[in-house]
Design a protein that fits this description.
Biased composition (Basic and acidic residues): 244-255
Helix content: 40-55%
Shape: globular
Number of strands: 7
Number of domains: 1
Region (Disordered): 225-255
Distance between the termini: 56 Å
Structural class: alpha/beta
Strand content: 5-15%
Order of helices and strands: HEHHEHHEHEEHEHEHH
Radius of gyration: 18 Å
Length: 255
């Protein structure tokens, strides 16, 4: 018996593919449903072979991870099978929460780290990899912003300074209007602010913002849904990515 998937299913699977995966409680939040309903959704996706078995890398909600084939269908490029590990779960989850707070489930207004990593591609031996942002989004005025999510203070000032410089340079090269750091806690903010001192941050707006304040009002449930679009011939990820590339082109608290 075949499983019939709805537009809501495809939207969710596209977002999960962009962000590698998500815990079941966040899948529920994304759609404004109970965890039980989200579990039933995941069961249907599993029956349709769109996701792998639910995983529990740490105590708590199980993780929903699209198969490599599913991810490739939505992303438009070869994707490796991804397995969540404890050390990366907080960051992966928080970046998705930031995305939901900024643009909801609308993939037209967000470029994921996974896609940006693919666009950078492999680097030659001895060549440093360009900085890869945690994501980029289009604001209400049609401007692209590069996004960095900082959850804990970097151990060394030199490391933080080099990271800020690289993030700003990558945003400038990509033609972004600005670079925004979403930081957890004042200590993290202070380190980023101190690291930015003396750097040439001209040309691209640099902004420092509070992560928890942003996440207090996420776009979830019906308000998070993107506008209905006619999709012909399968997932439109490749076409969307091309259109967004062509379109890329006042801060409350500058670093």
């Amino acid at each position: 018996m075949s499983v019939r998937l709805t537009p809501r299913d495809f939207t969710a699977l596209a977002v999960l593919s962009e962000h590698y995966g998500a815990p079941l409680d966040l899948v529920a939040e994304m759609h404004g449903v109970s965890r039980r309903s989200a579990y039933r959704m995941a069961q249907r996706w599993r029956e349709a072979v769109m996701i792998g078995p639910l995983l529990q890398p740490v105590p708590g909600p199980a993780w929903v991870v699209p198969t490599a084939t599913t991810a490739e269908g939505f992303l438009g490029f070869t994707a490796r099978h991804w397995v969540p590990t404890p050390k990366m779960l907080d960051h992966v989850t928080t970046v998705l929460r930031v995305r939901l707070a900024l643009v909801g489930l609308d993939s037209e207004r967000w470029i994921s780290e996974r896609t940006l990593r693919h666009e950078v591609g492999p680097t030659k031996l001895g060549t440093a990899r360009p900085h890869i942002h945690d994501g980029r989004y289009i604001d209400a005025e049609g401007r692209w912003w590069a996004v960095e999510v900082e959850l804990s203070p970097k151990t060394a000032h030199a490391t933080a300074r080099a990271s800020v410089a690289a993030a700003h340079r990558a945003a400038s090269v990509a033609g972004c209007h600005g670079l925004v750091y979403y930081c957890r806690g004042e200590r993290v903010k202070d380190i980023i602010r101190e690291a930015a001192k003396g750097l040439d941050l001209s040309g691209t707006v640099a902004r420092l913002d509070d992560l928890d304040r942003l996440l207090a009002n996420p776009l979830v449930g019906p308000q998070a849904q993107p506008p209905l679009r006619l999709v012909v011939g399968g997932p439109p990820a490749a076409n969307q990515r091309t259109a967004r590339k062509n379109d890329r082109g006042q801060p409350r608290d500058k670093p």
